[in-house]
Specification:
mainly alpha; extended
Length: 218
Amino acid sequence: MGALVGGGIATVLSLMVLSRALGDNPLYRLAQYLLVGVALGYAAAVLTGQTLVPAIMQAIDTSPSVPTITIIATAGLLFVLLIPRFGRQRGSTWANIPLAVLFGVGAAVALVGAARGTLVPQLLDTIATRRIDTVDPATIAGTVVLIVAVVVTLLSFTYRQRGDRPTSGARLLRSFGRGLVLATFGVFLAAAVTTYLTALVAQLQAMADWFTLLGTLF
């Protein structure tokens, strides 16, 4: 029974989303609003249950330290400043402070994550020329291609002063570097399209299984 009800809800919502192929319509907008609302509600529940409530209960049950009191007081103040954003927007200028803190911290965390997870490993992998010492031809070729591709791609972002005419070699390197950038974007796009198609096929298969189950009952 649970599979029938859950599969029915998933099928109806999937059909509502797929109706966007026929144009913008109320069914698609309703499914979109449900998705956003459920996602925000889930995020708020997780944040409240795993972050706010444990900190408040710990501060009540034990003797909180000065850093804990400072963090809770700061969070409470930022929350109070965010309240005018809702309703008639009176005093919503004060809400820009917690929003600025939120976006600033988020951007800083994303920047550090990108630097530590992508940029630094890429640089370390590029300068690891010691791998050329191996006797494996495939490893040597891959290392050389990686180094050349990174250098050429970085050269494509060089700037010149107005009036300067680059040489034919510089133009060739820039064109090749931009081609590498476009090829990388193409690979990412192909991977995204493949992922979306896989998810679509899986959802269509789930819908077909639900219709099959429904047919066996009637």
